Amino acid sequence: MTVWADVVGQPVAVATLTQAVTNPATMTHAWLFTGPPGSGRSVAARAFAAALMCPDGGCGSCRECRTALDGSHADVDVVATEGLSIKVEEARDLVTLAAHRPSVGAWRVILVEDADRLTERAADALLKALEEPAPRTVWMLCAPSVEDVIITIRSRCRQVRLRTPSAQAVAELLQRRDGIEAPMAIYAARAAQSHVGLARRLARDEHARIRRHDTITLASRIRTVGDALGAASDLSTIATEEAAAAAAERDAAERTRLMELLGADPTARTQPPQIRSQLASLDKEQKDRAKRHSRDVIDRSLTDLMSVYRDALALRLAGGVPLINEDSRPLVASVADALSSERLLRAMDAIGTARERIGANVQPLLALEAMMLELRLG
Amino acid sequence: MAPALPSAYLISGPESVLAERALAHTVHEITVAEPDAEVVRMYAAAYAPGDLGVHASPSLFGGQKVLVVHDADEGSDELIRDLVEVLPAATAGDVRLVVLHKGGPRGKRATDALRAAGARVIDAPAMKSDKDKADFAAHEFRAGGRKATSGAVQALVEAVGRDVRELAAACQQLIADTTGVIDESVVLTYHGGKVEATGFRVADAAMTGDTGEALRLLRHAIAVGVDPVPIVAVLAGQLRQLVKVGSAGRGRSAELARELGMAPWQVDKARRLLSGWSAEALGRCISAVAAADAEVKGGGRDPVYAVERAILTITTEHGAS
């Protein structure tokens, strides 16, 4: 049982990283982990950090390994943003941190989980520290693809490419690590298109399965313009509600905690100005987080919806490709019957356009409406 | 002998032009009656506790004082407390108190006390509708001793009606600079070609299929500084309402409004507009507007052109099917 156990389906990357751990000549100070969402970029980076910290090169059971893997090791700093971007102030803090010597381990690891969310100014602030860090500092940046970080960062890092693991490998991980039964594990791995985190969520959360099912059945329901707009509004409402539900408890807890820290009286009707400004900035942060969450939910729904059209196309072309929605074969078949191959491609295009537009800050509802109009049957 | 002046005044309402006029008028009225009265102005933002009391206490040299308190609605708790405390002195006849309050719950204690003490209340209500503004302009011309045609008033409100202060200034300018009856041609001479267009007016014109008017208003809106982004948002909103109402079927508009989360007048308006529209055409328009939204948010080179093209699509689709 080594630290690499949870890095599924990535033999090439694991070989590169283990070699860097064992042979100092192949070690570098800046790494860029790229791979599609859910391929385990941050898992691989954490495993690498643990292997560097571990006296045995990644046994997976010593204290160093365990703390590095769960992100509580004193010399492993994990940066993950829940907002829309990583701001320049945070990047400057990282630069200061990078100049420190490690305290207990052999290395100081700074792991940026979503380097694609670095703003351009934040990325610029990191350049100098990335190029010539302190002797025992290692940077690990994760991003979906190399194009997601600016070229000056890209050129300062050694790249580790992860690929989409096979559904079988993900299912095995779910069975082994999370104790999920085989049929459920394979369904979840397929439906999540090998996205490990999503697959686990689908396997364990019935609500998530129901929502996914509701989303994919949309494909066979939209006929008129009114239906299309209704479906768009449903999708966007679900996303906002889910974001609000996920945030409500945590937001309130954070607020109470901040009030305690500031020594403010929570029962006061109006707070003094200095406390008000602190509360306002917390509010803003929470709003940003909710916005990102609702966008992520929409994006996930769109991926689910896209999978139906992809399957329908696979059926039509009879390529013998395994279906993502094997469990909903009748639905897929009905869509494949109703639409020509050309229309199916157009539908997938429309979904892709909508995702791009939402990424470019178009009102999500409007982008979804335009997309749903393209998805009408007949 | 003029009738005795009240000892306290409350000028209440958000319209600053009206409030300023009422204040100037009040101060004038008092200084005419008592030529040696001293006018002391105080502003809520710069108020130091106790100031009111200092000014309200009798002076060694006698003489009347007029205390003008601006922005009582933004006042600190001390200001409100001092106002209430100084009120008996005012009613006793030593000082006159003029309080300006823009509205809202803050400082309500003071305004209530003023009203209870029999202060003269002058209203400065907000002017929102075009009719209010037209009445205001007409009144301005009458007060200036000039005749103005209703067409002239209408044209003036169209041109500069967004801000009441600007409207008032325009009226004064016309009164001072022209002679004879003020008609539309006079207004056009001074304000010709300027229209206060908003996204809503652009959308209204586009939904009725009036290409020329919609593009003209769009140009005006851009020229007066309306951003293309909200214009696209309004277009999308209106199209969405049309589809919703169109696919909801018959029924009383009040019930439908509740069901769809719209205002009843919006339902009625959408129903009137729907006659020139088919569902398919509306769908194509929504796609065009979504593309325009992406373009105005950095996806295209020329945001104004993107909006223009969306409007052209809408007006072409209107009545096409």
Verbal overview:
The complex is a heterodimer of chains A (378) and B (321). Chain A is of the alpha/beta class. Chain A has 2 domains: 11-161, Rossmann fold (3-Layer(aba) Sandwich), CATH 3.40.50; 225-374, no CATH class. Chain A has 15 helices and 5 strands. Chain A has helices at 11-22, 41-53, 63-69, 88-98, 120-131, 151-154, 167-178, 182-191, 196-204, 206-217, 225-262, 273-317, 329-338, 341-359, 364-374, and strands at residues 30-34, 76-79, 108-112, 137-143, 158-161. Chain A has a 5-stranded parallel sheet, with helices on one face. The mean pLDDT of chain A is 87. Chain B is of the alpha/beta class. Chain B has 3 domains: 8-123, 3-Layer(aba) Sandwich (Rossmann fold), CATH 3.40.50.300; 130-191, Helicase, Ruva Protein, domain 3; 195-317, Zinc Finger, Delta Prime, domain 3 (Up-down Bundle). Chain B has 15 helices and 5 strands. In chain B, strands 2-3-4-1-5 form a 5-stranded parallel sheet, with helices on both faces. The longest helix of chain B is centred in the C-terminal third of the chain and has 21 residues, at 228-248. The radius of gyration of chain B is 27 Å and the shape is elongated. The termini of chain B are far apart. The relative contact order of chain B is 0.08. Classes of the chains: A alpha/beta (378), B alpha/beta (321). The interface between A and B is medium-sized, with 17 and 22 residues.
